[in-house]
# Entry
Amino acid sequence: MTIPSKYDASKVESKWYDYWMKHNYFHSEVDEREPYTIVIPPPNVTGVLHMGHMLNNTIQDVLIRRARLQGKNACWVPGTDHASIATEAKVVAKLKEQGINKSDLTREAFLQHAFEWKDEYGGIILEQLKKLGASCDWERTAFTMDPEMSESVIKVFVDLYNKGLIYRGYRMVNWDPEAKTTLSDEEVIHEERQGNLYYLEYKIEGSEDTLTIATTRPETIFGDTAICINPNDERFSHLKGKKAIVPLCNRVIPIIEDEYVDIEFGTGCLKVTPAHDENDKALGDKHKLEVIDIFNDDASLNSFGLHYQGKDRFVVRKEITKELEEKGFLVKTEVHMNKVGTSERTKAVIEPRLSDQWFLKMKDLAKPAIDAVLGEDAEINLYPKKFENTYRHWMENVRDWNISRQLWWGQQIPAYFYGDGKEDFVVAENIEDALVLAKEKTQNPSLLTTDLRQDEDALDTWFSSWLWPMSVFDGIRNPENEEIKYYYPTNDLVTGPDILFFWVARMIVAGYEYKDEKPFQNVYLTGLVRDKQRRKMSKSLGNSPDALKLIEEYGADGVRVGLLLSSAAGNDLMFEEELCQQGKGFANKIWNTFRLITGWEVSETLEQPETSKIGLEWYEAKFNKALAEIDDHFSKYRLSDALMTIYKLINDDFSSWLLEIVKPGYQEPIDAKTYKSIIEVLENNLKILHPFMPFLTEEIWQFISERTPEEALVIAKFPTQKTINESLINEFETATGIVSGIRTIRKDKNISFKETVELFVVNNDKYTKDFDKVIQKLTNASAINYVSEKVEGASFRVKSNEYFVPISIENIDVEAEVKKLEGELKRAEGFLFGITKKLSNERFVSNAPEKVLELERKKQADTFAKIETIKSSLASLQ
# Structure
């Protein structure tokens, strides 16, 4: 086969990915081998590949490919998450473009549109992962709304309800007015924002008195049902038992007393709006206040908002402020920093809202999950360990999980209502089972399925994905099947710290509840990918490069190396395209090294030189040491460090040192024994590099010799570590110091490499002579002489040894040396002129501290001496 002169990733990558897929190397079935399992953090079905996905999936692919090479039964399960909020929003938007409103469709019709959208766009990100080289078991691709997955989710809901852990409650929830659904506390991001504090005057009924309250939301006055004062606040003792009149709507409300009110904040009077604030709701319940909801589901005002009905809350805020001011109710306005809750998905400002929702009790469920990570006999490891504190904080302060969403895209809650009362429902896996339960509950045998109506809400998407490590192996529906027994618990989970609670903690909870076992052994939390300004990469900021264009430009291997070299465990990655260029450059270096080796003529009759023999022995020791380091790095999930160890081994030890030691002389052949050994070394290098750079390594592997499909690199055997010869490694390190010393002298003295030099050694360290022939070859030294006294010539030290290279004029390129010395003389004379001028300046001399003057005078003397030395050297060359 003709080896191309240049490595072209665009021609290589699709060729080998297709080859791997054709031979089914990524597929796993239960067998006698040790399983190694990873489940992919399912990306949103709406998603496209971005830098976070690139980093996360590259790490997973490195782990899975390494396990495959180690002979384990590697199973990497891919799939996507239905992402109820994001996907429903996209489907609704697409329907609007076609002139269709969601409200005009039945649920079934809408879901048909949604599945059509999913079928058209849902596989994009998985196809893009293939471009990256992801070696997933694509036959196992799962989707959180596949029928068997949905059945598992419903089964779990019913089970938890029957255990008394799921309940329906009328609670204050986080309402996303853009998505028109409730959110869990964890899906709300609290941002510090600058707003205003509005001071409003309320009249006291039956008197000329007034009181002033401070609020950040003047539009909510329509929902006021009381004013609250602290009973210990003497300023307002005259208001006890009285009533106030709400501005504009003129509703009369009681003035109540409660120590909840902070005397120091605002005016010390608090307006109570039970429908729109969690703390106000608690006050309202305590004092039996009326609850008035003033908002529609899109956060526009309803009929309680009078002439503002139908207008958006933020529009009303501006307009009502103006009206309150015109009518004398607005006393003053102050700038105020406030924490505002926003939706993680839509970025809309959250509205607290009272609503009937479904909740899962988390306190008891969380206990095994806390012990599993933080207990004395912890079974699950977080990497880096710093995230244990975050995990502890969340799990020890866990609140009941709001699991219902006002959406259609998702698993419909299996609650069936048969009457108008809040408790007139049953929970069952299907309507037939529900009918049986409803007949029992109502004692009405004539009930029909048509008398039942299923809850309209869908379950939170996370309620699907928290079962992921079990449901992808059908472990909920068929808990004793051979796959769940074999593949579960999984080995490693690679994900971002931003979903440590959303997903990771909940999977641990589900694992102990349904398998009484951990779902995974290790959790590796990657950092976030940021730009040079430390900003998180995002579409909205426009600072995220196109992932596929990066692959097109630098090759998948180049991008993988670029990402990993800069991604220390758990720390954020400051991404720069130059890192991918470095990865591409490394690929080219390896390719050129391979071409160099295969370009050598091989002789079957030549004996192996001593230099090659000891060079290969040294590299074997170095390789074994690198293997131990790589294993250690992998055990700590320091993949960046593992890659750097491999990078240095191949780039420095192999390409720069070993090949220099063994390469034949100009137009001379290499002996067959050395050549065979070098090919074996190259193959072992390819094996340890393959998880990081799969395409390049497979290409070179297949060029080295004709391989059957059973001999492909992707399923080759990982090198086994042998005894490390540390003394040989240390001796060679000394040898490289000697080689560098001689090369420096050659460069400084302009001695051509064609000219031989002689080396004299005062061997104070009793350094071995094993590498003398190697040193001679790499420096073109005619001899190495061991002496007891110093020798005239250029010298250097390595540890305690002294090395001397006698210099004769015959060795030197006189013209080049004269030119170099004349340049040094010119620079030295210019420097001396500057110092002399400074020391001739009386003002400088009289004002400068004595220490400064001493330093300048020393510089002057040293430079003068240097000039004399250069002139002397020039004279000897004339």
The domain at 181-351 is CATH 3.90.740.10 (Isoleucyl-tRNA Synthetase; domain 2). The mean pLDDT is 91. The chain has six domains: 31-165+362-414+457-526, 181-351, 419-454, 548-724, 728-811, 814-877. The chain has 26 helices and 31 strands.
